[in-house]
Amino acid sequence: QAKENGRNQVCFYQAKEGGDNFSSFDLDSEFKQALVEDQLYLVFQPIIDIQSGLVIGGESLIRWEHPKFGNMPPVSFLPELEKGNQIVALDEYVVWTSIQNLKAWHDKWPKHFRSLNVNVSGKGFNSESIMQILESTYHTFPEVLNYLTIELTERSIVANVAETQITMQKIREMGVKLALDDFGTGYSSLSYLHQFKFDVLKIDKSFISNHKADSGENIILEAIVNLANALGIKTTAEGIETAEQLLSMKALGCNSGQGYFLSRPVEKSVFVGILLDGLAVLNQQTDA
Ligand code: C2E
Ligand code: MG
Ligand code: MG
Ligand code: MG
Predict the structure, then answer these.
(1) Could you tell me which residue ranges the EAL domain spans (predicted)?
(2) How far apart are CA 272 and CA 89, in angstroms?
């Protein structure tokens, strides 16, 4: 019931965001406190190879369990953090923690070792501190970076095209893969796909959920997947919520997918179980 309370409190906080009472929630100091008091943690959403049904890894997603406001969804604090530089501290936490997890899983279950995607803001991506974390990993456990994918949005690239391109080059040389997140929602500049040499294109969930066979969306979706295939870029379908959606993404030739139909984001111990045992929903499907 603490969580339910928390949800209400978040609405309260959001409602005030635009108003002059917003300063009563001092995100700046609350976030500093959150870092010190371990209020932040990661959950993980499994990603499957759509064609084979095997779990190939997952995506780290930030969660903030506030002592008073409860579980605050990322949308309630990320945009504010992105206005300043605190987003970089969040990115540091996420990248560092994800790498620690990758290392631990690599040591414990080398045969079940899978890749991990992390979301990084534009500011964080071009920051010295993230580069330092990656470089020190590169010098100590370089193989781990081959299993790390950084997800960027078009919005964060557009903010600083030249610098981002240089950072991408450096990061790529360390073995880290790069994914373009939420494709279809922003500028969707097709030339970016080639110019920035993304390894993966993540097709936004709005495309997946609005998708119907024989619809205009379907034609666009098909064109996106074909274009990515032709450019040698892998595709991931985000927000798969039904068996039908999974099947049509498979038929379209999408490489991988994630979504509530497969699994919601789960806490670490559950995710590790999924890495080892696969997803029950898919096992049932193949059994049937
Ligand atoms: P995203 O990177 O596109 O992540 C996918 C979002 O869709 C997640 O929301 C996930 O819980 C949600 N989702 C997954 N499957 C489904 C589905 O089947 N249906 C629907 N309706 N939603 C689904 P979440 O965790 O609330 O994160 C929202 C956004 O916040 C993320 O979008 C990402 O842009 C940002 N974010 C999350 N974690 C981090 C982080 O650690 N660092 C940074 N910089 N941004 C983050
Ligand atoms: Mg993402
Ligand atoms: Mg996305
Ligand atoms: Mg998104």
Answers:
(1) 24-279
(2) 26
* Closest ligand 1 atom to Cα of 120: 44
ipTM of model: 0.97
Record the tokens describing residue 219, joined without a space. Answer: 């034609």
Residue with tokens 């990758």: 102
User: Residue 56, Cα to own-chain centre: how many angstroms?
Assistant: 14
3 Cα: distance to centroid of ligand 3 (angstroms): 25
* Cα 202 to chain centroid, rounded: 9
Q: What tens-digit pLDDT sequence spans the chain (288 residues)?
A: 334 444 444 444 444 444 444 446 789 899 999 999 999 999 999 999 999 999 999 999 999 999 989 999 999 999 999 999 999 999 999 999 999 999 999 888 887 778 999 999 999 999 999 999 999 999 999 999 999 999 999 988 888 999 999 999 999 999 999 999 999 887 767 777 878 889 999 999 988 887 776 677 788 889 899 999 999 999 999 999 999 999 999 999 999 999 999 999 999 999 999 999 998 888 765 544
Q: Is 126 in the pocket of ligand 1 (CB under 6 A)?
A: no
Q: What is the enclosing helix (H) or strand (E) of 76?
A: helix 74-83
Q: Output the six-digit token pair for 107.
A: 């040591």
> What are the strands, taking DSSP E only, across 140-240?
148-153, 177-183, 200-203, 234-237
User: Which amino acid belongs to residue 155?
Assistant: R
Ligand 1 binding pocket includes 57 (Cβ within 6 Å): no
Going from the Cα of 108 to the center of ligand 4, the distance in angstroms, rounded, reads 31
CB 212 within 8 A of CB 199: no
CB of 181 shorter than 6 A to ligand 1: yes
42 membership: H or E segment, kind and range: strand 40-49
Q: 196 phi and psi, to 5 degrees?
A: -95, -5
pTM metric for this prediction: 0.90
> In the numeric block, which tokens belong to residue 162?
């030249």
